[in-house]
Amino acid sequence: MPFDFNTAVRKRYVTLPVPRDFILSSGAPKPQILWVGCSDSFIIETETLDVLPEEIFVHRNLGSILHNRDLSSESALDWCLDLLKVNHIVVCGHYDCALIRENDANEVHGWHKDVTRLHRTTAEYLSETNKNLSEEEHDRILEEIYVLAETEWIRNQSNVEKAMNERGLQIHAFVYDKVQNRCVRLVESKMVNGTK
């Protein structure tokens, strides 16, 4: 499935705090979580989730991206799914992310290529809905839409679908707010009263 901002921008979702016991610790020093984070987010994953450091396999890059299938990201995803058999994948963006905020930045080896499309798609949608947002609100929505699109892309990969069906792998969309030093999770409205 292609990377799809058109679907993500129209998703109805809420932001909810991430309780520290959102993913329970197994108590064993074995990775159960693949955490995909941004290189400059300043987050400490074990301050968000009360698990052992050894329970989180952290992969960081510019913008918390997996869909571009660079060798490092692809290897991290395959390693965690096929060998470590993690139970959770967390995509954690962060508010005030320079990569997402800057629409006219030069591409860095193709890393920035989808951001112009993100800005255009979001601007068209906000124009349709007549939403008047401050610059900060607009940037926060851009980050949330980007994370939602990333998690949707991951959900639709064949090896991820297989793990979801066979062992109940769960995909989570988080955004870190460094001003408040906390994460929120983006939960589609239809899932609010359902499972985590």
UniProtKB/TrEMBL annotation:
Keyword terms of this UniProt record: Lyase, Metal-binding, Zinc
A Gene Ontology biological process term: cellular response to carbon dioxide
Binding site for Zn(2+): C38, D40, H94, C97
Domain of life: Eukaryota
GO cellular component terms, A-Z: cytoplasm
Cofactor: Zn(2+)
Catalytic activity: hydrogencarbonate + H(+) = CO2 + H2O
SMART domains cross-referenced by the UniProt entry: Pro_CA
SUPFAM superfamilies with a match to the protein in the record: beta-carbonic anhydrase, cab
Pfam families, sorted: Pro_CA
GO MF annotation list: carbonate dehydratase activity; zinc ion binding
Record text on cofactor binding: Binds 1 zinc ion per subunit.
Record EC number: 4.2.1.1
Function statement: Reversible hydration of carbon dioxide.
Family indicated by similarity: Belongs to the beta-class carbonic anhydrase family.
Protein name, per record: Carbonic anhydrase
Classification lineage: Eukaryota, Fungi, Dikarya, Ascomycota, Pezizomycotina
